[in-house]
Design brief:
Length: 471
Amino acid sequence: MIAVSDNKPVTMHRFADCTDGCPDGGGHCDADGSPNMARVCINTTPSPIISLENQKPAYCDGIGSDSALTTHRNRRKQIPEKPNMSLNLWNFMKNAIGKELSKIPMPVNFNEPLSMLQRIMEEMEYSEILDQAARCTDSTEQMAWVAAFTVSSYATTVYRVGKPFNPLLGETYEFDRMEDLGWRGISEQVSHHPPMLATHVDGREWTTWQEFTMTTKFRGKYLQIIPMGIAHLVFHKSGNHYTWRKVTTTVNNIIMGKLWMDNHGEMDIANYTTGDKCHLKYYPHSYFSNDNPRKVSGVVKNSQGNAKWVLNGSWDQKMEAAPVIHDSGKGKSGYETGSHKCLWNVRPLPPGAEKIYFFSQLAIEMNEPEPGVAPTDSRNRPDQRLMEEGNWDEANRVKVRLEEKQREVRKRWEAEAEKAKLEGRECPQYEPTWFKKEEDITTGAPIYTYNKQYWKCKACQDWSMCPDIFL
């Protein structure tokens, strides 16, 4: 593994033997294939079991359970309120028209105190939908639940106009909620040009992973964010393997007025195991339409192309599904359906959310300091922490220093690459710490996938392979 250090050239590391330093001999540390197999080798004292307050089950048809909202530690319920420090967005953005926004340094005044690694992990907020999907014996019904999950990942964007922090190269984020929510995940910034992250989440009955990058189009009045990359989901029992791509997000009123978000476009979800497909349409906002705002509709079809489920709802509120009883062949207007059932219903935001960036309870918990995480974890990023604490001026100064440090590291990489070229030798390429490039089994294209090392190394608290990226 190649690690980039601030004051050293490229250095080679190997993963330490996990039996070293484990207080109980470490015999369990070589088991990482299952989310239930790895044990933490550090001493911890469990907190009493409590229930999150003011939370509503994700299901509105009685299928869900409040047990999904039980936590085994006292997690914070609040973060410092957002300071009243306005900055004219247009004065800053007018020189960025037509440019790739991800490459333009921006002050923290336009941010929220979470990194993009954390925002991607936040898509798991309604993971209990996947737990329900795992229980389905009919693959087309399972597809309907999967579709509802993909829609639920946009629920937090309705009010969240703050920009997440761009992760530094090698920055990571882990979120271990196996005890209370039934899943844990690890994300890493695997590339800087283009900016790209990879994430992997293990649930008890499912696994999901994705490689995420995006392009942006800034046209003055609005900013379009076009995601790239494919999300994968596999259910352990059935082996059903699903893929989908995200839709476009538009931030409106850049010049004047209140910023607001819209998600729109077409999404195709495929089950590569059975051949089932689902087509979802996210309707764009229109002042001339009588449709409900933020509307989403779709149809689930089996491998023979027969419609089995009709989906309707909105990406900020709920999704419902109805089984197709008869298909006249005239499209959606020709579907005779049974009774609808609610697959997902949004949970209300905590009281006073408008003062804390419109964070959900899960978002409030995501940047809470936690011992034992990797030194590269977003929780340890100093400018982001300063911003969360309300010290925006110092956060901006530290942000500049972090970006300068990253540029210096990149210059050393480029200088070494040029030297290697002149000497006729191959220059080592940057490699992520926790992800490796493999062939995507569904497309044949290269994709970053989890190398199954993070939780082993956390168990033994061996972070010797981590790059030095913060101050």
